[in-house]
Structures are given as structure tokens and as C-alpha cells.
Design a protein that fits this description.
Strand order of the largest sheet: 1-2-3
CATH superfamily: Fe-S cluster assembly (FSCA)
Order of helices and strands: HEEHEH
Oligomer: single chain
Strand content: 15-25%
Mean pLDDT: 93
Radius of gyration: 13 Å
Structural class: alpha+beta
Number of domains: 1
Helix content: 25-40%
CATH class: Alpha Beta
Length: 96
């Protein structure tokens, strides 16, 4: 189930950078147990104007999976996001 959630997260793009939130390195942890999905994520900056919108979108889309009864996003800023958190695919998309 965790892989199914990750595949879904790869379809959600950051509104400011046209890269999905998984490859951008915004997802720190995904867990699933007994119908509950918990996603620990960060943003590129704590003052991101899309903070609530992006977290809500993740909860809504993950919560729409038939196996998920409850989806919860925990926004964290420690450790802070850096370019090193990006996947190789994300780096290629940014030309790094």
C-alpha cells in the first residue's frame, strides 16, 4: 500500500515548480496501517503561500484511495528542505 501512495504522490506537482512533490523531496515519510495513511512532508520554504492548499490536496487524493479510511499530512520543517533531498529524477527535471 505504501508504494501505491507513493505512486499517487508522484502525480501531485508543486504549484510553483513543475515537479512532483515526491521527486522534489518534499515527502519525508509515508506510513500506512489499518486504513490510516500518514504522510510527513515539508515545503521548500516555511512561508510557502501554497502550504494549506498542497497539504489539503495530498490528504484529499490519498484519502480517495479505496484502502484508505483516513489520510493525514503532518507538515514539518525540521530538518529543513534542501536540494539534496530531491530524487535523481527531480534533479534532472531542474537541470541539476
Amino acid at each position: 500500500m505504501k508504494n501505491k501512495i507513493i505512486d499517487l504522490l508522484k502525480k501531485i506537482s508543486d504549484p510553483e515548480i513543475d515537479i512532483n512533490i515526491w521527486d522534489l523531496g518534499l515527502i519525508y515519510d509515508v506510513s500506512y496501517q489499518e486504513g490510516k495513511a500518514n504522510i510527513k512532508m515539508t515545503l521548500t520554504a516555511p512561508g510557502c503561500p501554497f502550504m494549506a492548499q498542497l497539504a489539503s490536496q495530498v490528504e484529499k487524493q490519498v484519502g480517495a484511495l479505496k484502502e484508505v479510511k483516513e489520510a493525514r499530512v503532518d507538515l514539518v520543517f525540521d530538518p529543513p528542505w534542501t536540494l539534496e533531498k530531491m530524487t535523481e529524477e527531480g534533479r534532472k527535471k531542474l537541470g541539476l
